[in-house]
Amino acid sequence: DAKTTQPNSMESNEEEPVHLPCNHSTISGTDYIHWYRQLPSQGPEYVIHGLTSNVNNRMASLAIAEDRKSSTLILHRATLRDAAVYYCILRDYGAGSYQLTFGKGTKLSVIP
Amino acid sequence: DVKVTQSSRYLVKRTGEKVFLECVQDMDHENMFWYRQDPGLGLRLIYFSYDVKMKEKGDIPEGYSVSREKKERFSLILESASTNQTSMYLCASSSSGTSGGNEQYFGPGTRLTVT
Fold first, then answer.
1. A91–chain B nearest CA distance, Å
2. Which residue of A103, B76, B98, B101 pairs with B21 in a disulfide if CB–CB is 3.0 to 4.6 A?
3. Is the Cβ–Cβ distance between B96 and B104 less than 8 Å?
4. What confidence tens digit (pLDDT) does each residue in B27-48 have?
């Protein structure tokens, strides 16, 4: 799977928007961009995924650059419950693989 | 609500013991996965299964085996536990299909300590 690069940590004030960046300069045409997060003492949970177009769901928005070499996960109003490690993962569906390869992620701290 | 359950949250075993970690999902998913998570190393895939009685090695299968006799249940077996297998073990499941999503649903994890 192609590699992703994320900042180790970020901070946000409560109720402000948060933009979590991810670089994936070697992304291939069949790679989907997935985001998962892991709250303290819990298993990871799915947040959102996309291929080329920007995506919105009840948890977050995903903005994908036109050349697909980077993406940004947007939390519109951070809450204390959003403090977690956020993982940006590429999945190659062209290879028929269902595996996820987790990197180190970005640890998001939310300040009250 | 979708659910992946793991048999224990915490487990303490002795070196050399045979250890069984059980995972059950109620979503009729074809794929099931076992990961371990260690500080500084992130999540690493041990084994996965895409069908009953089928299994594939992940990145770190050494010292582990798996069993999938029924679709909803995937077991991780440590034949002879060692201290370097002290870790958090996470089970996950996902559907098959080509929609591009196929998100994985994770259980709460089992923290295994081998003494």
1. 8
2. B76
3. no
4. 999 999 999 999 888 899 999 9
3-state secondary structure of A81: helix
Residue B42: its chain A contacts at CB < 8 A? 102-105
In contact, B29 and B89? CB cutoff 8 Å: no
Which residues on adjacent β-strands are paired with residue A88?
A35
The pLDDT of residue A97 is 60
Q: What is the token pair recorded at B91?
A: 């089970």
A94 backbone dihedrals φ, ψ, rounded to 5°: -65, -30
Tell me the per-residue pLDDT of B61-78, one tens digit each, with 9 for 90 and over.
999 999 999 999 999 999
DSSP A41: T
- Up-side HSE of residue A95: CA atoms within 13 Å toward CB? 13
Pairing of strands A9-13, A106-111: parallel
Beta strands per DSSP E along B8-84: 10-13, 19-25, 31-38, 42-49, 56-57, 65-70, 73-78
Q: Is A11 helix (H, G, I), strand (E, B) or coil?
A: strand
Of A60, A73, A75, residue with least CA distance to A33: A73
The whole-angstrom distance between B58's CA and the closest CA on chain A is 9
Chain A neighbors of B96, CB-CB under 8 A: 98
